[in-house]
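Tokens as discussed.
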């Protein structure tokens, strides 16, 4: 599906991502972990073309997406929707318009300039908000919502792009554990129900273990671990984080409580329960 070949990013003399190669050949939910500065965000931003790579190739459907330009590049950016730590909503715009902004790349410049959306756009946006359990907030301004709600709006906006894959750059880093769980449940549900690749940068080991099918560990720009979460032992984690014997996993925990042992084994028809969605 997507193949990384010696992908490298230098910022001046600093190599943020160093010859990274791996393949995602199944619609997995992939977690990327590592200490601050390991290169996680830079890697994700290169996929989405927000940060230009220094060298290497990222092949998707036989095409090197790092060489796409103009309309083809914008098309690719629509195909791999990005969710950010700080949500990146337009605070004064209402929620449903924020969601419809996910369609901007798909319509004419004139329509985009005046935020002209069709009835179909409105209905699709409302359906996305409904799926995320926040359709009742559709007419509120984005700034009136809690952080967890705003992140769900951002995910609805990503869905509006009808992407091949969703990239999430530390989507729960600004959230409390309850909201973190709701947002991770939502990403997992998108992965399971729509069979989409979700690549998620995470600070916390327990979240990666609970939600991801595959975990990639980065250290100093290099991939130092790539495997199923079951293989992510404390020793391996110590290696990824470059920590000594005193390494305490709890220090990387968001304490997300997953009551049913593992959400990775939930009902594929809908991992996010309305009850969970209604809490925020
Ligand atoms: N625009 C930039 N200019 C210069 N250096 C940068 C830039 N962006 C990132 N870096 C450097 O690249 C390295 C990797 O940064 P990156 O943000 O990718 O790491 P990260 O693993 O996502 O960290 P965090 O978890 O703190 O977000 C760091 O040393 C960082 O200082």
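Sequence:
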């Amino acid at each position: 599906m997507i193949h990384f070949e010696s992908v490298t990013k230098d910022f001046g003399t600093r190599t943020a991502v160093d010859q990274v190669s791996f393949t995602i050949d199944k619609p997995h939910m992939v977690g990327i972990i590592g200490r601050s500065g390991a290169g996680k965000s830079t890697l994700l931003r290169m996929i989405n073309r927000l940060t230009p790579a220094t060298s290497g190739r990222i092949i998707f459907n036989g095409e090197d997406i790092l060489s796409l330009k103009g309309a083809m590049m914008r098309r690719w950016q629509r195909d791999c929707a990005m969710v950010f730590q700080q949500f990146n909503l337009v605070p004064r715009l209402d929620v449903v318009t924020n969601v419809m902004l996910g369609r901007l790349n798909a319509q004419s410049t004139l329509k985009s300039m005046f935020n002209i959306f069709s009835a179909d756009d409105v209905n699709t946006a409302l359906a996305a908000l409904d799926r995320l359990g926040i359709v009742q907030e559709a007419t509120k301004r984005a700034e009136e919502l809690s952080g967890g709600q705003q992140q769900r709006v951002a995910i609805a906006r990503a869905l509006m792009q009808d992407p091949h894959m969703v990239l999430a750059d530390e989507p729960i880093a600004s959230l409390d554990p309850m909201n973190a769980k709701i947002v991770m449940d939502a990403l997992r549900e998108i992965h399971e129900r729509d069979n989409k690749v979700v690549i998620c940068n995470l600070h916390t080991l327990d979240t990666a273990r609970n939600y991801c099918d595959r975990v990639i560990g980065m250290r100093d720009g290099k991939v130092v671990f790539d495997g199923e979460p079951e293989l992510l032992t404390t020793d391996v984690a110590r290696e990824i984080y470059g920590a000594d014997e005193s390494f305490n996993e709890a220090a990387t925990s968001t304490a997300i409580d997953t009551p049913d042992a593992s959400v990775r084994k939930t009902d594929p028809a809908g991992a996010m329960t309305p009850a969970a969605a209604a809490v925020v």
